């Protein structure tokens, strides 16, 4: 379903969310309250960011194709 590039790119967004989670864990310890995300929220955030980026790439390529096809 996903190409190797797609999987690698999704992993990039998942890694970003995991780093964010570590920072939130540290902050939670300092503040004394839990402000971290659940595993499901981490995955969902990564999916949403991956999808946004993927849609931007498709739009950019489609615009390039449209310009070349109609010029």
The total count of helices amounts to: 2
Relative helix content: over 70%
Run of helices and strands: HH
Overall strand count: 0
Main sheet specs? none
Mean pLDDT: 93
* Shape field: elongated
SS content category: mainly alpha
In percent terms, what proportion of residues is strand?
under 5%
* End-to-end distance: 34 Å
Tell me the count of domains: 1
Specify Rg, calculated over alpha carbons. 17 Å
Low-confidence stretches: none
Write a structural description.
- The protein has 71 residues and is mainly alpha-helical.
- It has one domain (4-69).
- Helices cover 83% and strands 0% of the residues.
- It contains two helices and no strands.
- The protein has helices at residues 4-31, 39-69.
- Helix 1 (4-31) crosses helix 2 (39-69).
- The radius of gyration is 17 Å and the shape is elongated.
- It starts with a helix and ends with a helix.
- The mean pLDDT is 93.
